[in-house]
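Troubleshooting: if your tokenizer reports a length mismatch, compare your output against this known-good record of 232 residues.
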Amino acid sequence: MKNKKALIVATNHSDFEHPKAEPTGLWLSELTHFYDEFEKAGIPMDIISPKGGKVPVDKRSLGRWVLDGATKRRYEDAEFMALLKNTKSIMEINWQEYDVLYFAGGHGAMWDFANDEALNVLTRNIYEAGKIVSAVCHGVAALQNVRLSNGELLIKGKKGTGFPYFDESLAGVGKFVPYNLQKVLKERGMVYSKAFLPLSGHTVVDGRLITGQNPNSAIQTAQKALEVLGKL
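Known-good structure output:
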């Protein structure tokens, strides 16, 4: 996979826009697990955000019960975390340099990934160029409004997944999310599936579209993306 390169998109949004909700942002492991797998494969990556600048990290993703060792090492690595302090925006990169597009999740993505036209165009360009589009958890929100050049929604008729609405309540934010992502994906025509047990890992591959259900799916999503990349 010589000369391949990946582009990771993370959220700029840090607020549930509800007075009783804690701040949100990027779910850190959803970025670090993907980053680790691609780094092991020797594939360079760039991390950007819709607006550029700081990527806020959801403090819940740093909790003692969810912060795994690999992500903890990244969090304690000042050089790595500096990559999230002043990211480039979508408008500052050349999409043609990249072979894989990956949307990391975290609830912030439900806001700024969903209706960003530049992000939609980026995704369409990557996909129509025969390259890979991947996303995990709430990062899948980036795919809901992407239309191909023929006017069809990218996810229409495609098998995929994303964070289930039932699990929003388990996460304690069911009352705070701006919409039901699972419902929206189905309404857009995705052939949606999820793991039998809540919060279990689940990754779906449909050609060059690869989606993961939740943080526990990030490693497998990265591995599947690498498998598909090796066949391009």
